[in-house]
Amino acid sequence: MLVNSSMTESVRLSIAEVHELAVRVLSHNGMSEAHANAIAKVIAAGQRDECHSHGVYRLLVTTHTLRKGKVSGTAEPVVHDRSPAIVAVDARFAFSQLAFEVGSKVLVEKARNVGIAALAINNCFHFSALWPEVEWLAEQGLAAMALTPSHAWVAPAGGSRPALGTNPVAFGWPRQGDFPYVFDFATSAAARGEIELHRRAGTEIPLGWGVDASGLPTADPSAVVNGGAMLTFGGHKGSALSTMVELLAGPLIGDLTSLDSLALDDGAGGTPCHGELIVAFDPKHFGLGDGPGDAARAERLFSAITDQGARLPSQRRFEARTRSQSEGFFIPQALYSDVLALLR
Ligand code: NDP
Ligand code: PYC
Is the pLDDT of residue 290 over 60? Predict the structure, then answer.
């Protein structure tokens, strides 16, 4: 660890140091080794890829949720084999990562056998980005989608009262000899974590991210968080997509909506608790994967995007990853101090 002299308010850490710090903080706050390791992996990966809203910052929220006694730090996930194409994992009110680690292996097996398969994770506290999951599935040669609700912080298009979660949608597509094609975004104009980071830094948010308690557009992150509402991206389109996420990763899999999750939180300010749906497609069963034709058509599409100077989603992330692997990365000193305080 090294303090950057030109940016005295930042601290440089390596990926291994963040992983170790995360394990230490989570274990100190009562989490089992298996959960702490599974969570440390996604937190270190988030920071490595410069996804600041889902990196080291998340240690504050996860620990707060542990200390409030909301989440189990030790419950082992239980797998329910529902059908040849469906596996459910009951996270038993622990965080989602260990449930994904266990369930995703069964998901891959089922997708390879049947062609398309779904993993439903139930009763999980969910704080993480979804790209680590679809990226891993793409590395196994599968196309994949992941959806999850959150807390009801977001107003539907045309309204001003929160009813929807920030509800991310992620997609991964396997590519030969390259990073997979991956996108992962909240269906709100920005993730809640981005607004929280602006609030911590005392900076304004772009107009269009949220409204204040009177339903008026605001650049003040605190006004959005305290009594206001976040907005969906793309107006009614984001609103409908977000509603789809609520339905597919909520009632369809026997789990909570973002409204239910916020009610369950009961003012504790903890991580949302609900379900997650992950669907995997094995290209071989759909006729793709037989070589040149279809995979090449997908590659021509990617080239048509990048040849004109547009970038593929995740490209920034992959570049950050390469940089972080050799140089480490900087996090704000204030965040580092707040995380160290969790060891007391
Ligand atoms: P962003 O708007 O930052 O990015 C969304 C996606 O768009 C990324 O794949 C990003 O790639 C890509 N992208 C961004 N700019 C461009 C561009 N100019 N051209 C092409 N692609 C681009 O993300 P959000 O704020 O919406 O979400 C951040 C994270 O928050 C997500 O990982 C999401 O899973 C997580 N989240 C988790 C929730 C939960 O309940 N667990 C709830 C809500 C969000 P790149 O990364 O390379 O920039
Ligand atoms: O950033 O919107 C968010 C979020 C919600 C739950 C985890 N991250």
Answer: no
Ligand nearest to the CA of 209: 1
The residue whose CA has the least distance to atom 4 of ligand 2 is: 192
For position 81, what pLDDT does the model report?
A: 98
Residues 114-137 have pLDDT tens digits of 999 999 999 999 999 999 999 999
Of all ligands present, the nearest one to the C-alpha of 130 is 1
- For residue range 173-182, what is the model confidence (pLDDT) as tens digits? 999 877 999 9
Q: Which atom of ligand 2 is nearest to the CA of 272?
A: 6
Query: Hey, which residues are catalytic here?
Result: 53-54, 194
Q: For domain 78-286, give the fold.
A: Ribosomal Protein S8; Chain: A, domain 1 (3.30.1370)
CA atoms within 13 A on the CB side of 212: 8
The DSSP 8-state label assigned to residue 72 in this structure reads: B
Q: Do 152 and 258 contact (CB within 8 A), yes or no?
A: yes
Task: Tell me what the mean pLDDT of segment 249-268 comes to.
Answer: 98
The residues spanned by each domain of the chain are 3-70+315-341, 78-286
Domain 3-70+315-341 has CATH 3.90.550.10: no
For atom 27 of ligand 1, which residue has the closest CA? 185
Ligand 1 mean position to 183 CA, how many Å? Answer: 7
From residue 32, how far is each of 38, 67, 84, 123 by CA, in Å? 10, 14, 32, 18
